[in-house]
Amino acid sequence: MAKYRSLLPSLALLFHLIDGVAAGTGGPVSRAAAAQASASGSFGMAALPSVWARSWLSWSLAEVGEFAEAAAIGEEAAEIATSADHPYSHVQAFFGLGMLYVIQGRH
Questions:
Q1: Is the pTM of this model over 0.85?
Q2: 26, 33, 45, 36: which is closest to 83 by C-alpha?
Q3: Under 8 Å CB-to-CB from 15, ≥6 apart: which residues?
Q4: Tens digits of per-residue pLDDT, 41-59?
Q5: Strand (E) positions, 1-107?
Q6: 107: which of 14, 23, 43, 45 lies 20 to 30 Å off by Cα?
Q7: How far is CA 26 from the centre of its chain?
Q8: What is the pLDDT of residues 17-32, one digit of tens each?
């Protein structure tokens, strides 16, 4: 992961500049640009980091009984994996949703 440390800020800046040119605005790098940068690559991981994080967050929220939020986060992970057409990320997203369903007793 060390070789990718400067990639995320670089991508965030790039997305911010593209959005700024399109909208005619400037200013600090937006949260949206940073989110887009983190969703755009796997950075050496098997699953996209944005999917991986949401999968585990979904499971964690299910463990503490936050089922509605867990489902929303898990579905978001699945949507990202689908839009990226990244097969292993699909597996990771469905793992998080699967754990939610098991904890809910919906297995």
A1: no
A2: 36
A3: 32, 33, 36, 37, 40
A4: 555 667 788 888 889 999 9
A5: none
A6: 45
A7: 25
A8: 666 655 666 666 666 6
